[in-house]
Amino acid sequence: MSDGLQILPVRGIGDVTAGDDLAELITNAAPWLADGDVLVVTSKIVSKAEGRLVEVPADGPERDEARDRALASETARVVARRGPTTIVQTHHGFVMAAGGIDASNVDKTHLVLLPADPDASARALRAGFAARGRDVAVIVSDTMGRAWRNGLTDVALGAAGIAALRDHRGEIDPYGNELSLTQMAVVDELSAAADLVKGKRDRVPVAVVRGYARPEADDRAGASVLIRDTASDMFSLGTAEARAEGLRDAARLPDAVAGVADQAAVDRALTLVTGVLTPGTGITAGAGTLRLTPAGAGSADLLRLGTDTHRVRVALAAEGVATVLTVDDDGVTLSLGGTA
Amino acid sequence: MSDGLQILPVRGIGDVTAGDDLAELITNAAPWLADGDVLVVTSKIVSKAEGRLVEVPADGPERDEARDRALASETARVVARRGPTTIVQTHHGFVMAAGGIDASNVDKTHLVLLPADPDASARALRAGFAARGRDVAVIVSDTMGRAWRNGLTDVALGAAGIAALRDHRGEIDPYGNELSLTQMAVVDELSAAADLVKGKRDRVPVAVVRGYARPEADDRAGASVLIRDTASDMFSLGTAEARAEGLRDAARLPDAVAGVADQAAVDRALTLVTGVLTPGTGITAGAGTLRLTPAGAGSADLLRLGTDTHRVRVALAAEGVATVLTVDDDGVTLSLGGTA
Fold first, then answer.
1. InterPro entries, alphabetically (chains A, B) (predicted)?
2. Helix axes B186-195, A186-195, angle to 10 degrees
């Protein structure tokens, strides 16, 4: 049992203000810091030392307005909104409630923003320790919410001197299977471990992990490799926001056809609109087409056929079937294609 | 520096098979286990001891089919699909790729399912240690992916003898601010910490966290309190899936009005459809209504007005504006209401 890890709190750092030398403060508070240690520093004190503060009124609607302005300036895009909660992607790429802006552990006339470049902050801190003769890895951590799970955990915003991921690809288990769970976000796990000895009230903003065999570091990568790019993120938008986008897509449905429609998809689409089309609207399937005809000869029948047509087109689009619409005096023809 | 935590690997547990007494195996491997320790046990060996295995062919299409059947039986609902990846919510409520089914660290003719009730497994294990005179908390952990962040981390599926959340609500920081980050998922953080000393190749499936001041436990709650209920989850569906639902909503748009329409929302909707409506289609705003008229007197003009009408209705729905459609021989009237 001698080969485990220790997670050690660093106490006595005290209040941090703009311009403070964090490496100096931490070395003084933890003279026992040793080569090979992983230092996990709460982003809050990094932001304070770097002067990443915004002055705001202490209360009233002016405070809310100032807070909204700060959020807007930190926001690259809004991911999801519900009630008072706004989850955004920051300019760094982090997906966080309120863009990581925090009003705790700071006087009431300031808000604390995230460090502008947490990997650069981690590198600078690591260099500061190196200058004092200590070879330590540095992680800049913050608290984040998650999809699907209640409660928050600490994760890494920045890192230096340690690879963010431990890659198990190619490893073979004792049964001869290649491992399928391949890349562990170890800097996030180290941040979580450090939080277990930290105090949320800023009294212990730093912890040291001792005894961890760091994966090979590429200092240029840092923790930013943990940011999933939006295109490959299956959850890049909130459910409600994505659903509203689907409605907007429906409103602006383009006339485009590519590939060949899948009959099962067409059948699912027609089942979907069963019961919402005008009684008497005719639908006849041809070769790669659907022909829609009105319930009667009146103007209202033609108008209704028009709304039915767009319902059918949208239902097909939901199944990935694109359509081209041709209108004549007796009805409409939809040519069916591939991916909408 | 004496008040930190230790994370200790438990080695020498060896192969676990159905019917094994895990408390016995772990006590033998870690005779140094002490009161107050938090034991983090990889769900894989819990599943094996509980016989949660499915027999499958070692290879070929039959193996894939058997795997699909196992996934279907573990799945409560599909959350997102892309390429070979299927993320589902299991019957327990966990959102996991492949429903947590794993083929590693088991012979090629079996798949390992998650424990049927990980909180119950944790309680049973804790009772097993209590019977051997050790008062320890037990966490059953597994590896999960996350939205927005690359890499995996270990989290808690089950827990006993420890509260899953540490609640900071009501605490005041040194500046007099009430803390806003309130509930930390400490059993997830303990699971992540334990993973740092575990081996992915099953050689170290158990770790002990020593020195952690456990939050008050309510044994009935367990780790299941960390499962966010779908209704309050802003990311209950994948973005592509939610967008497709939006399209389906558009196809089945109901005739219903509640509340009063917001003029700004109506304006946004009309801006959205600019350029996709038939040239000449007239839109006139009245009191709580929109009147749409055809570009000309022909049948095709009426049909086109019908499709335009549904585009406008869907654009309004995307902005939360519900509509009731009234058709007459000269055009259509949309009565505008509140939340669609």
1. F420-0_g-glutamyl_ligase, F420-0_gamma-glut_ligase-dom
2. 130
